[in-house]
Amino acid sequence: MDIILASGSPRRRELLERMGLRDFRIVTPDIDERSDRPLPPHRLVETISAEKARAVAAQLGGDALIIAADTVVALDGAVLGKPGDAAGAVEMLTALAGRRHEVYTGFTVLRDGEAVTRSERTEVSFRSLTAEEIGHYVSTGEPMDKAGAYGIQGFGALLVDGIRGDYFNVMGLPVCALGRVLAGFGVDCLTLAAGGTKQG
After folding, report:
1. Which residues pair with 125 in a beta bridge?
2. Quick one: which H or E segment has residue 72?
């Protein structure tokens, strides 16, 4: 089976590999990923992930299995996208400091016109941060391509004092939920991880 990850994210590629998938291609979808649409966060990420999957399916044709995802951070119901610059990153991190927020990832698995779309929510708590700490973190450059201006798998882990839910969801792909959906499409990740061949 031809498996496509419809994302240029190195974190999502790494997570698919951790799930036991090795033989997949990456095709980056060309769509409008604006996070300012008038939708609640879970609907927003579901909608964008489905649009990514459909865009890649239309581009490639054939019967490839396509995996697409989108992640946003929400604070008090307001969606925080990726910061446009260092000042935007400082603003986001200042708002998140000492508070709890939510991370939503929507994902879509599509093959032969059949699509399943789901979303996962994880609560993340930040410790209190000084302006100096925020400045140091922003100076690493890590926040600039991350929703909410932080990466939990990197230096951003130093800001997080607790989570409730799927840790990998915060990285950009809810591994457990995705694995269940892939099994429904005939891709059994545990069998693959054990050296089996159930992929088709």
Report:
1. 100, 162
2. strand 65-75
**Beta pairing class for 24-26 and 3-5:** parallel
pTM of the predicted model as reported, rounded to 2 decimal places: 0.91
Exposure string (b/e) for 11-20, b if CB count within 10 Å is 16 or more?
Answer: bbbebbeebb
Element (H, E) at 79: strand 78-80
Residue 59 maps to a domain: yes
Place of tokens 């036991």: 20
Token couple for 17: 């590999």
Give the Cα separation of 195 and 192 in Å (integer). Answer: 5
Is 200 a domain residue? no
- What are the pLDDT tens digits along the chain (200 aa)? 899 999 988 999 999 999 999 889 999 998 876 666 789 999 999 999 999 999 999 998 778 999 999 999 999 989 998 899 999 999 999 999 999 999 999 999 999 989 999 999 999 999 999 999 999 999 999 999 898 999 999 999 999 999 999 999 999 999 999 999 999 999 999 888 787 665 55
Kindly report the CATH number assigned to the domain that includes residue 155: 3.90.950.10
| CA 121 remoteness from chain centre | 11
Please tell me which residue in 2, 30, 70, 188 is annotated as part of the active site.
Answer: 70
DSSP state letter for 11:
H
Q: Which domain holds residue 61?
A: 3-193
User: Catalytic: 112?
Assistant: no
